[in-house]
Design brief:
The chain has one helix spanning about 1-20; strands spanning about 50-60, 65-75, 75-85, 95-105, 110-120, 120-130, 135-140, 145-155, 160, 170, 175-180, 185-190, 195-205, 210-219. With about 220 residues, it is mainly beta. A twelve-stranded antiparallel barrel has the order 1-2-3-4-5-6-7-8-11-12-13-14. The longest helix has 20 residues, at about 1-20. The two termini are about 30 Å apart.
Length: about 220
Amino acid sequence: MVVRKELNIIIITLIVGAMLITTGNAFAVTAFEGGFSGLIKTPTANVLPYNKAAVGYQHTDSANLASFNYGVYDSFELGLTNYWYDEDEVEDDDLFLNAKLQLMQENNNQPAAAMGVVNEDFYGVVSQNLDYGLRGHIGLGDGDFDGLFAGISKTLNPVTISSEGKNQTQIPVTTLMMEYIDEEFNAGARLKLTPQLNFNLALEDLSDLSAGINFETQF
C-alpha cells in the first residue's frame, strides 16, 4: 500500500536525521522487534527516560521493520513500529502502536514492574538484577505474547586487545540475551558501537538470523 510505504520512508528518515543532528547519551533499552524497551521480542520493565528517543531498523527472515520509541514521561514510553513483509509471505503491511507504563522502580526490596499494550495485545512484566551480573525478566500477556514469556540478559564490559605491535582493538560493550516467547527460544546480542548507535543480531527460534541497528538520543 502506498500509505504504508510512505510511513516506512518517514520512519527511516527519522533514523538518519537523528544520527546527523543529535549527540545525546545512549540508553540501550529498545527491543529489536516491537519497538518497546526490551530484549529481542520480549518487553522488560525498563522504560526510556523522559525526553529520550530510540529509532531503529531490523531485518528478519520474512520482514523488515522500522520503529520509533519515545520517553513521554519519566515512567511512560510511547512508540510506533511498521512492518513490511516479503511479497510471498503476506499482502498487507502492519503498523503497530505500543505504550508502556512503569508501575514500580527496582530497589533492594522489589523488582521493577511495568504494564503495556502493543496494538491490541496487553502484557505485564517484572525485571530484577540477579547474581553474576545477570538481569532476569518474566511476564504474562495475551495475543502475540501467548501467555508466559521470560528472558535473561548480561552486559559485558569492553575488552581491549593488544597485539605485539602495540596496536589496540577495543571490543564494544555487548549485551547478551536469551528469551522465551510464543513457544520459541531466541538468542541475541546488542553491540554498542558508539554511545548512541547499537548493532543488533539475533537467532529467532534459534534458527532464523535477524540483524539491524537502533539509535538512541535526546531531543
